[in-house]
Amino acid sequence: MQTGVQILTGFLLTVPFTERFRSLTDAQQSLYLCVLIGAVLTTLVIVAPVCYHRLLFRQGERPWLVTAAHVCCLAGLVGLGVVSAAVVYLVFDVVLGGPAAPIAAAAVALAFITLWAVVPLTLRDHE
User: Fold this and answer.
1) Does an H or E element contain 36, and which?
2) pTM of the model
3) What is d(CA 36, CA 29) in angstroms, rounded to the nearest whole number?
4) Pairwise CA distance, residues 123 & 117, whole Å
5) What is d(CA 64, CA 115) in angstroms, rounded to the nearest whole number?
6) Fewer beta carbons within 10 angstroms: which end of the chain, N or C?
7) Which residues of 53-62 are buried (b: 16+ CB within 10 A; e: fewer)?
8) pLDDT digits (tens), the chain, 127 positions
């Protein structure tokens, strides 16, 4: 997950330097900036436990570290799902326009919610 978000963020950072970026509408450019900020914040949240561990290693903070890493992981998963759906929305809007963008983004969001929340919460007690 960490590598995927970092790669996505890296690709997003290059977009404004392409010639086609100038042809985006103001709304598409605003969405792009929101997606970029979301990707950077998601990267921040996912990498934060590494920093916590380095700073607090062997200082008796294991319970706090485990809890903080758990919270960061959950926040990172939510961020990754939101950023992924938003990127799909932006790409579909640029390529196809019209109603395709919200439909594609909703399908991606539904897939994330289903596989990352509904499936484990539904099947957790069926073993």
Assistant:
1) helix 26-56
2) 0.86
3) 10
4) 10
5) 28
6) C
7) eeeeeeeeee
8) 778 888 888 888 888 898 888 899 999 999 999 999 999 999 999 999 999 999 988 888 889 999 999 999 999 999 999 999 999 999 999 999 889 999 999 999 999 999 999 999 998 876 5
